Amino acid sequence: MNKRKAVGAVLLGVAGLLYGVSPIDLIPDVLAPLGLGDDAVAIVGAAIGAWRLWSSAKRKPTDRG
What we know:
By secondary structure, the chain is mainly alpha-helical. The protein has one domain (3-58). The chain has helices spanning 3-21, 32-58. α1 runs antiparallel to α2.
């Protein structure tokens, strides 16, 4: 397992969750659909990125694809 990618995946996931629960946003939650939408996009994007990093970290260096 590539420890560097695994740590990156964990940090990316934590960053996404922190952004989602943080009161400081790009678009405030007062603008209900847009404010909640940017939180959802950030959390889902971080989850997808973390999943891809984590799955590539588990692969052996000889695996392709």
